[in-house]
Amino acid sequence: MNFQIELEKKVSEIETIIQSFLPKEEGFAATMAQAMNYSMRAGGKRLRPLFLMETCRLFQGEERLAAPFAAAIEMIHTHSLIHDDLPAIDNDDYRRGRLTTHKAFGEAMGILGGDALLNYAYETMFRAFDIAPGEEKVIRAMRLLASKTGIDGMLGGQSVDVENDGKPLDKDMLDYIYEHKTSALIEAAMMAGAVLAGAGEEQISLVEKAAGNIGLAFQIKDDILDVTSTEEELGKPVGSDEKNHKITYVTLFGTRQAAEKVEMLSREAIELLDSLEQKNEFLSLLVEYLIRRRK
């Protein structure tokens, strides 16, 4: 398999799925729809929908049923980026190589557009019932995404991150932030893909553990790139962690130890996935790719 060609093909498929679910830019609320779509069309790695679709394929699930969830999870993720960039939090001007939403549309529309995108994600998930009315696995997948997004998941992690911004952190609290702010949504993506494909309880539990490792490794890699990459490569300012006085794995342990942690977590995730009877070569290669990325 030529991984890079396959990745580009699959990301293009994800873009088509996302585009098919975006709101229409019309009527009195057209500006809000424009702000939502501006953020969603800004590109990015599309990792969470990729993980969702590839885990669904791993268990031979119906891709048509997974598509609304793939679009929805990217909406949830993008909403979190819009709000992260706001002046009250990270105060960033650029994201994915272009002006952040609040810079392009104003702070008020940045707040409202992010709120609308989070709500629209759930509207999009509900469209899975058009394909499978009353299907229990659809209900379960929705419950998973709701739980992993809320106070016990991504938003809970973000709140602890914001509350402790600039304060000394130990490893336990940093792990809590990373496991909730970043890992939770990757867990949601992979678990929802498995649930929608009808995977068993043991398989779903194993997928959750692998996804937790992937999420933690991904966030630590971001810490490393913030001090080793360039603004051109990342599409956003580098050194923002230092600027915002953030404690990261790099500030706690140094670049080398942080990189070793990324390697260890990624290897464990691949071993967990390889232990499944079902196989998806691309999924394992995607985890490998995340270790080596420069953006």
UniProtKB/TrEMBL annotation:
Tell me the protein's name: Farnesyl diphosphate synthase
List GO molecular-function terms, semicolon-separated: (2E,6E)-farnesyl diphosphate synthase activity; metal ion binding
A Gene Ontology BP annotation from the UniProt entry: terpenoid biosynthetic process
UniProtKB keywords: Isoprene biosynthesis, Magnesium, Metal-binding, Transferase
> What chemistry does it catalyse, as a reaction equation?
isopentenyl diphosphate + (2E)-geranyl diphosphate = (2E,6E)-farnesyl diphosphate + diphosphate
Q: Which GO terms describe its cellular component?
A: cytoplasm
- What is stated as this protein's family in its record? Belongs to the FPP/GGPP synthase family.
